[in-house]
Amino acid sequence: MLKKKILFIVTVYRIGERIHPIIPKLYEFSDIDLLKVNEMSSDMNWYGTNDPRITFNSKYEKYFDNIFDGGSSSIEHYGARNETPCDVIKNLNIDKYDLVIYDDDRNRHGVWYIFEQIKNKIPMIGNVHGNWWSSLDGFPEKNNITKSYNKSFNYVSVFGAKEKNSYEFNDFVLDGGIPSNDELKYYDRTNDFILVIVNFLGNRNMPSLYNIQVDEKFINTSGLLELQNKYHKKIVFKLKSRADHPYPQKDFDYLNSVVPKELDYEIIMDFPDHNQLICGAFLVISAPSTFALKPIQKGIPTILIKGAGTVGNFCDYRGLVELNKDIILNRVEKEISLGRDNNFIKNTINGGINFNSTEKYIKNIRGLLSENN
């Protein structure tokens, strides 16, 4: 039996990394080509402290028959426009593929050009951008999936049943979990530090719906010093590298300027192994963020701060609280005593309880390939 042929499109590392672990499993029953555009193109200068594309290439390039690089003309940061596909996309022979996987759910990077050629022939699967606005938190008008359906994909994979069921019409919505979180099962918790996952620092403007930044007020109001004194753990700030703010040293300098001298802390940005980082944490304080699903899945006490990020899937999370020292300190004690939030995990991440999202995702892929024989 001939193998199926799949085109795998990567655009932004921190979005796509959630599904990258499916690549070896796809290779078991298909031939795969890779299309690198936007921030995954080799022409993009990395904007953080360590380039994760090096890790991607070393782990996954061996599984691809052909690798196409869109180059600078596919990169938004260099002025490329979403509606104008690069020449590499225009010249792709799309007819040879049985299925296309796109790592995002936004109609960007010229992927519409690919979809237009295959929309009535084969499945093209988008993937949810991350924990994002939806009817779950009262902002369906900001949802990427409803905007991009039948424009850049005809199927889309989301994290779990709660998200899938938030769409009135959801036959095209697949719940594929978060495959990259599966490897958490191989890591032991070491309880070395208190991890603070930062969305926006106080040195830049934020989206209008976010009103909490990590600034001097946040440091004083979040109870970090009190938590450190009580649990005797170093504070580790994890910053997000951003293409629209490619100044890691400015971010490090800013945070150093607002942290009190009596706090024992460390600042990191791009970390080579996110699962290892998470499993080193005794406690996590974070903006509502896809990254915060990792410690919740692992059973690490996790506090999310309202207003610091998109609520989305966290609308019913028990540890979502206001930025208030007393509330946070009390919630930390409760989270430690309550343990892993299995009900939240089960409803939010398909395969999240047993760390088998990859299996769920691949089952969805096989189902679509069977339907389109």
What does this structure look like?
There is one protein chain. The chain has helices at 13-16, 23-27, 52-60, 87-90, 111-118, 144-148, 161-164, 216-221, 224-231, 248-258, 274-279, 293-298, 325-338, 342-348, 357-371; strands spanning 4-10, 30-36, 64-69, 99-102, 124-127, 155-158, 173-175, 193-197, 234-238, 265-268, 281-286, 302-305, 320-321. It has 373 residues and is an alpha/beta fold. The strands form two sheets. A seven-stranded parallel beta sheet has the order 3-2-1-4-5-6-7, with helices on both faces. The chain has a six-stranded parallel beta sheet with strand order 10-9-8-11-12-13. Strand 2 (30-36), helix 3 (52-60) and strand 3 (64-69) form a beta-alpha-beta unit.
User: What level of helicity do the residues show?
Assistant: 25-40%
Strand order of the largest sheet: 3-2-1-4-5-6-7
- Which sequence of SSEs, written as H and E, runs from N to C? EHHEHEHEHEHEHEEHHEHEHEHEEHHH
Low-confidence stretches: none
Q: What is the radius of gyration?
A: 21 Å
Q: Kindly state the number of beta strands.
A: 13
The biggest sheet, with number of strands, parallel, antiparallel or mixed sense and barrel status, is:
7 strands, parallel
The dominant shape is globular
Number of helices: 15
Give average pLDDT, whole number.
Answer: 96
